[in-house]
Amino acid sequence: MKGVTREVITAMMLTIALGGCAQKPPAPKVEEQAQKYSDGELPLPDNYKSWPKFLSEVQRPDNKQVREIYINPTGYETKMGEAFPNGTITVMEIYKAGEAADGTPLKGPDGKLVKGELQKIGVMAKGAGWGESVPPELRNGDWVYSMYMADGKTKASDDLNTCRGCHLPLKDKDYIFRYDEYFQKRAS
Ligand code: HEC
Hints:
Layout (H helix, E strand, L loop, with lengths): L1 H21 L30 E8 L4 E7 L1 H4 L12 E9 L17 E12 L16 E7 L10 H8 L11 H9 L1
């Protein structure tokens, strides 16, 4: 009996030890990498859905879209009035607004557009010196941009300079649209 027990225990310990060896170290996060990213190189972090929400159900009737925005824990540390620290990543899911068969927008009981199909996912992140290679007239501080299709892997065909052009006037808000709305909602 004793022998069997010892064998079982040895086998268990071996399993634990081997299991430990077989485990790959987790991929370094964007904010931990010394690497500099340029537009289009920024990967979509696969855990972004577990991050704090930046804003939910952003209504874009002009584009027939509903958007969901997330911010990573590093960015979440930011207080109103501050710029976001290096290592901040924001992710924006762009959904087609739901439509009835006749093309009229579908609305929920609260009068809001409802989310249809996920179309694209945009990413913005900043790191020390990341903006240096960008021409000054297009520089958005140290933010860089990527846009993916709904699978989160296929690059969308967007010209990433258009991202810069539209976010550029938001310099006073660290290039983030809805900066005030976010901090006001968080405070309330
Ligand atoms: C015509 C203007 C315009 C262009 C072009 C644009 N954006 Fe934005 N972006 C916005 C607005 C406005 C918001 C805030 C959410 C909203 O109202 O839809 C936003 C929000 C975002 C956010 C969420 C964080 C934040 O700043 O609020 C990300 C990420 C983002 N955009 C990425 C991109 C990427 C990537 C591109 C280029 C492929 C791009 N944007 C092009 C206007 C623009």
